[in-house]
Amino acid sequence: MRAVEGLESKVRSYSRSFPAVFSRARGSIILTENGRQMIDFFSGAGALNYGHNNHRIKAAITEYLASDAMIHGLDMATPARIEFLETFNSVILEGRGLQYRYQFTGPTGANAIEAALKLARKVTGRQNIISFTQGYHGLSLGAIAATGNRFYRKVSGVSLPGATFMPYDGYLGPGVDTADYVRKLLMDDGSGVDSPAAILVETVQGEGGINVASKQWLQSIQAIAKEFGAVFIVDDIQMGCGRTSEFFSFEFAALSPDVVVLSKSLSGYGLPLSMLLIKEELDAWEPGEHTGTFRGNNLALVSATAAINMYWRCTRFSEEIRRMGELLLRRLEAIASEHGNDFAVRGRGMALGFDCQMTEVAEATTRRAFEKGLIVERCGPDDQVVKFLPALTIDFETLNRGLEIFEESLIEAVTEVRGKGC
Ligand SMILES: *Cc1c(COP(=O)(O)O)cnc(C)c1O
After folding, report:
1. Following CA atoms 109, 211, 402, 378 in sequence, which dihedral angle do they give, to the nearest 10 degrees?
2. pLDDT for position 245
């Protein structure tokens, strides 16, 4: 492909799955350099919940840019920062009965996870982090240590200590409550599992294959964290900001995490911004103990504030996400039952996974979908799950067109793979 090949390191990945030059975008449509229209069901891995270049959010940042207001100020106070904090407090936290301190970290999700783990270890004086099979928390060393995927772990080049993996909800089949297993191991002084500083969990595992934890399981895990003195951390980087229909993905289970990690769609515009929400009694940091140059970039805070004001002041947006999510789920279930008995559909809200069981089928499906004008990505330990993360603002017609492309591509993929004698 023009320019990137040979210039950019071989480490590039998405430009391989989606070989085109993308020049402009609006909402759920991306234009390639050659003027091709692509439907986007990937949304920047969940960083574009409000669509590309959402014009209502764009107005706020163009005005801000034009006024020569502070863009970079390290973590110094600015009107943009104060407005974000006040807006998030009043619109998001207060109505939900939540109270947190805010910590802006470096702009990646991984850096926010590092901060959360550091804080949990500092507060408890313990080292062990309990994380879960198929969990994904980012690719810096502390975060990889808590990430299941062998592909990412083995390239780190050092040992990755400090985490104990427990089976996620459903990992051992529908008959086994894995929370009971976690409790049993923590109660047993002979289990070999050190007392945890934290339990780190996603309510729906995004990279891990759209694995959905139940309300009861999440409540048990929260109770176990409390019982054993561990900090309960929800990684809401991908599933937060409305992806599962409510602002936080844990609201449906009425959880009250000690620490919540947000990033990806937090800025509302695809600008980098990451943050921890910390219960006040756990805010044990000394000034500057976790620092970074780009903590709470003002432009990203302005777009984040605009997104919250625009979409979260009433419950209508949540209801729309739920309605569209149900449509999407029903349609995918119909496609699954029509075209084979091996397919499974999972998810919550507008985070859905179509499990092809076979990597080859999933690969051929997303490749053919791209050729037909749909950007859709895969996840799961073997990349066997087609992952649907359309913008939460997508209109019904575009959603439908994308689904038609997906169905055609799946049919062709099944034929292609059968033809190879698999
Ligand atoms: C993307 C992601 C991360 C890592 O965020 P980066 O910005 O890529 O470092 C961590 N946890 C979850 C659940 C994610 O989806």
Report:
1. 70
2. 98
